[in-house]
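in:
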């Protein structure tokens, strides 16, 4: 496919650079915000090689490409200077604090996944090649490959600074510079020296920020307000040099004095709490540590335990951190592999498989954690449950690690030691339980692929919400049956959408139930049609069959009257569809939002079948 040529054609057909206000992409579509959409001829855009279709939704002109959309976007970006927004889509639904926190992390981490996968696979090679006798682990090649593999993780704060800057609308290079301040070699040297450090008379906490996640995300979020403040108060005549100067000074100070140390203090508190629990009930401490290790790694607080696991040796075995990481790391790998096996999305299948291999063989869990389990949540819960089970088993059996290595299948020999073979056998048992149990739980829990892979309906809903609408409202199927578009209904009033947007169901059961909470606003004497109004203002018509008004109510039984209040799932009508078919009538039942003009969009659920009370329409 000639991406460059297709991108050029698309650019010309949407009116050129001058007509593009911004452009970004999601999983399948180029999404243009155009100054004048009337300049674009849809039929010509559809003729461009690689273009599957076009849509005009939520103030955007959407060019549907498919899974290869990133390649087109890359070539398009080379052709002009377009403003853009983060391509990470939000669902637009209200979230609790934890969900919002996780979504921000997932959104900012997603662009880093290729780099982390690459680094993780290099670490796998560094384990396998010496074992195969191909590479000497004392060679310079090994040493150089080591920092090849470490680089994506160590410099993660700087990369995150860039993606978070896009998320929070902060000047990207200023955010990256603040990340560089936290990782600067001179500061690292001060941390390693251990001597007290002060900045402008204020004490600086000696913390290492390499591979950390939370401190830089918090810092860039704060920079949004720092930058906005200076943007308002600095005169334009001196803004070009004073604004970046003040932003870097204030942001650097806040990063080293306030924000950065928060993770360190939290880690120290966690370390003290876990060690205290370990002294009282070792099995409980290990269970908690193994269960919450993914979240501890996510925050970077696992380094608070460094004095414990870095000195692991036959003389001073680690009975806490490294055993917990064994269960947690393998659980992350197994969860990712389960997602790979279960998903129907080819891209997700590949990423999940590579992430799982990285975690299982090298103990590098970041790709699995940020790209799979944290993003889809249920696999994370499966891994945490499995970790807790394995942690309790390890605590009871007293599993010990006799060497420092990132726990994985390849590094299981670190658990060889003690009297007899009991310790390594227990480690193998933990590995098997962690992998098998996590895989099964992930498979059973599922991955909410419809929600988490952001089907096109959800993406469109989120964008409509971002343009100023209320949260999407749902209409649930009043009956089980086959779903068809209104355009296929054999009645011009419905197929032409003269009465509004919606869909139709060819029913497979005789009971019609309320599709939402609301009121019966109209019930035709023939009972073949019923008008409803939801508590949120949706006016809905359920028209049972085509031309069934001619039956004069025969084969219809109503259980409500006009003015009745109704609850979702309440029985409204009973219809003998078999008799209606025998009488020669079409049983196709249009479901139409008659006040469609009051909303931004009416989005029908994808699919050809529905169960009763399953969501079939989203109203934005």
């Amino acid at each position: 496919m000639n991406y460059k040529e297709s991108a050029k054609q698309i650019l010309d057909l949407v009116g050129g650079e001058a007509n593009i206000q911004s452009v970004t992409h999601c999983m399948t579509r180029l999404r243009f915000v155009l100054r004048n959409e009337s300049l674009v001829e849809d039929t010509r855009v559809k003729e461009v090689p690689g273009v599957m279709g076009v849509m005009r939704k939520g103030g955007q002109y959407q060019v549907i490409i498919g899974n290869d959309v990133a390649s087109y976007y890359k070539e398009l970006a080379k052709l002009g200077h377009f403003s853009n927004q983060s391509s990470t889509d939000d669902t637009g639904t209200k979230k609790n604090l934890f969900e919002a926190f996780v979504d921000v992390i997932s959104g900012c981490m997603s662009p880093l996944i290729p780099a982390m996968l690459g680094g993780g696979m290099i670490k796998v090679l560094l384990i396998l090649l010496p074992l195969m006798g191909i590479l000497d682990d004392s060679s310079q090649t090994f040493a150089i490959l080591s920092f090849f593999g470490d680089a994506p993780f160590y410099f993660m704060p700087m990369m995150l600074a860039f993606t978070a800057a896009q998320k929070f609308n902060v000047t990207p290079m200023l955010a990256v510079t603040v990340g560089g301040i936290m990782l600067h070699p001179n500061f690292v040297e001060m941390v390693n020296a251990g001597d007290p450090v002060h900045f402008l008379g204020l004490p600086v906490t000696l913390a290492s920020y390499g591979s950390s996640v939370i401190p830089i995300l918090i810092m860039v979020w704060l920079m949004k307000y720092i930058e906005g403040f200076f943007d308002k108060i600095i005169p334009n005549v001196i803004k070009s040099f004073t604004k970046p100067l003040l932003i870097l000074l204030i942001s650097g100070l806040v990063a080293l004095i306030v924000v950065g140390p928060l993770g360190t203090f939290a880690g120290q508190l966690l370390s003290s709490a876990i060690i205290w629990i370990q002294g009282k009930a070792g099995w409980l401490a290990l269970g908690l540590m193994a269960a919450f290790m993914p979240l501890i790694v996510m925050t970077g607080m696992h380094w608070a335990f460094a004095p414990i696991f870095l000195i692991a040796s036959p003389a001073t075995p680690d009975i806490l951190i490294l055993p917990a990481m064994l269960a947690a790391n393998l659980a992350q790998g197994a969860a990712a592999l389960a997602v790979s096996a279960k998903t129907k999305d080819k891209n997700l299948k590949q990423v999940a498989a590579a992430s799982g291999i990285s975690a299982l063989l090298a103990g590098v869990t970041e790709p699995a954690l940020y790209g799979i389990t944290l993003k889809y949540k249920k696999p994370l819960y499966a891994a945490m449950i499995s970790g807790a089970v394995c942690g309790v088993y390890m605590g009871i059996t007293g599993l010990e690690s006799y060497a420092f290595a990132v726990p994985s299948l390849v590094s299981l020999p670190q658990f060889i030691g003690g009297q007899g073979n009991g310790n390594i056998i227990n480690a193998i048992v933990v590995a098997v339980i962690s992998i098998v149990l996590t895989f099964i739980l992930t498979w059973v829990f599922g991955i909410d692929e419809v929600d988490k892979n952001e089907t096109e309906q959800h993406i469109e809903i989120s964008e409509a919400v971002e343009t100023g609408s209320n949260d999407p409202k749902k209409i649930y199927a009043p009956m089980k049956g086959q779903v068809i578009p209104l355009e296929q209904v054999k009645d011009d009033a419905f197929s032409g959408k003269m009465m509004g947007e919606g869909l139709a169901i060819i029913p497979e059961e005789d009971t019609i139930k309320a599709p939402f909470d609301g009121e019966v606003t109209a019930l035709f004497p023939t009972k073949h049609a019923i008008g409803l109004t939801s508590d949120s203002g949706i006016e809905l018509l359920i028209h049972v069959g085509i031309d069934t008004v001619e039956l004069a109510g025969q084969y219809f039984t109503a259980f409500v009257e006009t003015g009745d209040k109704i609850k979702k799932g309440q029985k409204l009508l009973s219809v003998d569809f078999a008799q209606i078919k025998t009488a020669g009538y079409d049983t196709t039942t249009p479901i139409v939002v008659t006040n469609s003009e009051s909303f931004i969009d009416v989005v029908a659920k994808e699919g050809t079948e529905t169960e009763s009370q399953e969501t079939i329409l989203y109203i934005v």
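note: The first strand starts at residue 20 and ends at 25.
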